[in-house]
Amino acid sequence: MNQRGKENKPRINNQIRCSEVRLIDGDGNQVGIVAVSKALEIAALAEMDLVEVAPAANPPVCRVMDFGKFRFEQNKKLKEAKKKQKSIVVKEVKFRPKIDSHDFITKVKMIDKFLGMNCRVKVTIMFRGREMAYQNRGRDILDRVIETIGPDMVTVEQTIKTEGRNMHMTIAPKPSYKSIYAKDGDEELMDDMAELENDLDVDVDDDLDMDDDDLDMGSEDISEDSIDSAEVDENKVS
């Protein structure tokens, strides 16, 4: 790695081995093709360095400059470029289809925090067992997340998608993103979310309870029929 760094570093002054170079003076003027000894003399008179800036050219191009200052400016540009580079961070917030209004607000607060940190957020609905029959509830929650945060504040980078027992979407903050809590406050959001307990929790529970009753009744009927059949078979044998 050190050897590679040496190869990338330009040759300066006596490190330049060619017999002649195309010279650019300290003011940026084209001097022309001169012997390397002459170029070194010109650089020394200007109290600067002779730097090989285009070694692949024929002859190589050299420039008279303050090499220390040049390196400092190059490093400064590299640091500024690194600062401008943004790493993509994706956070995930998970919901259940039977979430109540209080938990919903807590989850939305987390999403709001991540978006405020300029992170992308993967919003996931986790289904268990017979909850897969109520995927429309998951879509309602995802739609409500967008509605609560503000459709004009986020970009949906990945639309709603179902994979296995999970349903998810990915959202990212727009440059104009503003925290919903800085704007509205918890009390107003609580009022907006008051209907969630009925819409997203009670209805699903009622439906699931009905399914449980149906399943239990079916099991009892099957058991009684099986017993009757067993008694009939026993009488026939007798």
Automatic annotation (TrEMBL):
The keyword Cell inner membrane does not apply. Residues 12-81 form the Translation initiation factor 3 N-terminal domain. Pfam families: IF3_C, IF3_N. Residues 88-174 form the Translation initiation factor 3 C-terminal domain. InterPro entries: T_IF-3_C_sf, T_IF-3_N_sf, Translation_initiation_fac3_CS, Translation_initiation_fac_3, Translation_initiation_fac_3_C, Translation_initiation_fac_3_N. Transmembrane segments: none annotated. Gene3D superfamilies: Translation initiation factor 3 (IF-3), C-terminal domain, Translation initiation factor 3 (IF-3), N-terminal domain. Residues 192-238 are annotated as: Disordered. GO terms for cellular component: cytosol; membrane. The keyword Transcription regulation does not apply. One of its GO terms (molecular function) is ribosome binding. Keywords: Cytoplasm, Initiation factor, Protein biosynthesis. Residues 192-232 have a biased composition (Acidic residues). It comes from the Bacteria. It is found in: Cytoplasm. Monomer. IF-3 binds to the 30S ribosomal subunit and shifts the equilibrium between 70S ribosomes and their 50S and 30S subunits in favor of the free subunits, thus enhancing the availability of 30S subunits on which protein synthesis initiation begins. Belongs to the IF-3 family. This is Translation initiation factor IF-3. The lineage of its organism: Bacteria, Candidatus Walliibacteriota. The gene is infC.
